[in-house]
Design goal:
Oligomer: single chain
Order of helices and strands: HHHHHHHHH
Structural class: mainly alpha
Radius of gyration: 21 Å
Number of strands: 0
Strand content: under 5%
Shape: elongated
Helix content: over 70%
Distance between the termini: 48 Å
């Protein structure tokens, strides 16, 4: 429940931040009448995300067992790629996102002669990116956690992000976004490492990968996955009570590379 909450909270705040910057710029530049166009783009992006999620879920239900395991492995890899790219994109773009979005809005309005059709496309693409990332992540998590906790956590994260987004836009909430995105970025990389190891496990169950299947350790008695602590560690760190060598190698290799690039200092801009 905690992991879907944190991921959807971050995704929701990213989307709210983008929409809030655009809305604020339109308001302060005397174009507040174009706000309905922004909401059209948001609603179209949300509809696309729901449509893609429902379509993928229905498609997976029709597969035979081994093909379903393969599908779940592929979804897991896509989720890893999208979550990782999201983390590094925000790390790189955080300082300039406001200026870039405002310049993009101005270009969109010029190209559409003030009618805002290009603005709809801009908002749609920006929000759809966050929505599709969420879809693939939630599919991967729901396939590993069949209970009610994950959906409830995701919905709670969305609800809190909406409230915080409105507060950020109105100025009533002060949030250190740099620290927030850095801390949640670390959590996401841990989750992505677990999803990568889980994808390898799905490929083994689908019959595509049969190497490095030696059990490294077995903590089924000491720390079972259905215990409260085991469930938290499984969701947050991708913990498995009896992981095999291939899963451990993928987990540690992904985490080592991702954390190296994430934690190293960002290069300073060259002096003019």
């Amino acid at each position: 429940m905690l992991v879907p909450f944190l991921i959807m909270l971050r995704e929701g705040i990213e989307a709210a931040l983008i929409v809030g910057i655009i809305a604020s710029y339109l308001k302060h530049s005397g174009r507040g009448a174009l706000m309905p166009i922004v909401w059209v783009g948001v609603l179209l992006a949300a509809a696309l995300s729901l449509f893609v999620g429902a379509g993928l879920q229905l498609m997976a239900a029709e597969f035979p067992q081994k093909q379903q395991e393969l599908f779940e492995g592929v979804v897991g890899l896509v989720a890893v790629a999208m979550l990782t790219s999201m983390v590094f994109w925000m790390r790189r773009a955080a300082r300039s996102i406001k200026g870039d979005l405002q310049a993009g809005v101005e270009r969109a309005l010029v190209r559409s002669d003030g009618r805002g059709w290009t603005l709809i496309g801009m908002v749609f693409l920006a929000v759809a990116r966050e929505g599709l990332e969420s879809v693939f992540f939630l599919l991967a998590i729901f396939q590993q956690s069949r209970g009610w906790e994950a959906p409830v956590g995701a919905l709670a994260g969305i609800a809190v992000s909406v409230v915080l987004g409105l507060g950020l836009y109105s100025g009533g909430v002060r949030l250190d976004l740099r620290r927030f995105f850095r801390l949640t970025g670390l959590v996401i990389l841990l989750v992505a490492a677990g999803l990568a190891a889980g994808a390898l496990r799905k490929f083994h169950e689908a019959g595509l990968w049969n190497h490095l299947q030696t059990v490294v350790f077995d903590w089924s008695e000491a720390l079972p996955m259905d215990s409260p602590l085991g469930a938290v560690l499984s969701g947050l760190l991708g913990y498995q009570a009896a992981p095999v060598a291939g899963e451990v190698i993928v987990y540690l290799a992904f985490l080592a590379v991702a954390l190296f690039f994430f934690l190293r200092p960002a290069p300073r801009a060259a002096a003019a």
